[in-house]
């Protein structure tokens, strides 16, 4: 891995920006992203796109911020501080998707797109009317797109029922324009297997499946970790492999919180 951005004492660490919604329960969204970025030695910055009332049982409410607020947050951070990588999460409407896609097209940094469709609890987080904007505006500016299997089906119509279907799913996602597709097979039985490909090289990432129901924030965490590794100078395959290792450890350490599904443990690596 290229370590040219590892800071000396007193220097700023690599800069990572998350453009996503807030999770008031702290397990996913902006909160999960910033915890992940800190754990991986980068400086996390944020553009808030929506506020949710959310806990371990689900999403009780969601309020989208206006496009002007999103645009001004982005310009405020990027024009003054700069950025080495960007991660996007919850963009609930077509207007927000188009606004963010336009900003990302000119930012000059690698972009990890987590095309969030539903929460861990099954609550919809993306308006059906926004799907076409994700396909035609957002995914074409992505360095890496990280859909899970329900999101692949939502975006492409491809339904994956076994590991063999991951290739077809990845090809369908790549046809929408990202440079790399990371299709996450966590919904399949057996070991947790993901496929990363740019249409030429294939990288299969496997990890043992942990018997732990507390996995809230897994998708956000993987995408944020990938962005953090890219900001540190890693190439895409190495960045995704490192992110997979980090999120596997976070899932293993997931803990009960409230009366529903608890979060993964973003701080597991900091404990040594």
From TrEMBL:
It comes from the Bacteria. Residues 23-265 form the Pyridoxamine kinase/Phosphomethylpyrimidine kinase domain. InterPro entries: HMP/HMP-P_kinase_dom, PM/HMP-P_kinase-1, Ribokinase-like. Its EC number is 2.7.1.49, 2.7.4.7. It catalyses: 4-amino-5-hydroxymethyl-2-methylpyrimidine + ATP = 4-amino-2-methyl-5-(phosphooxymethyl)pyrimidine + ADP + H(+); 4-amino-2-methyl-5-(phosphooxymethyl)pyrimidine + ATP = 4-amino-2-methyl-5-(diphosphooxymethyl)pyrimidine + ADP. Pfam families: Phos_pyr_kin. Keywords: Kinase, Thiamine biosynthesis, Transferase. Pathway: Cofactor biosynthesis; thiamine diphosphate biosynthesis; 4-amino-2-methyl-5-diphosphomethylpyrimidine from 5-amino-1-(5-phospho-D-ribosyl)imidazole: step 3/3. It is an enzyme of class 2 (transferase). GO terms for molecular function: hydroxymethylpyrimidine kinase activity; phosphomethylpyrimidine kinase activity. Catalyzes the phosphorylation of hydroxymethylpyrimidine phosphate (HMP-P) to HMP-PP, and of HMP to HMP-P. This is Bifunctional hydroxymethylpyrimidine kinase/phosphomethylpyrimidine kinase. It comes from Streptomyces zingiberis. The gene is thiD.
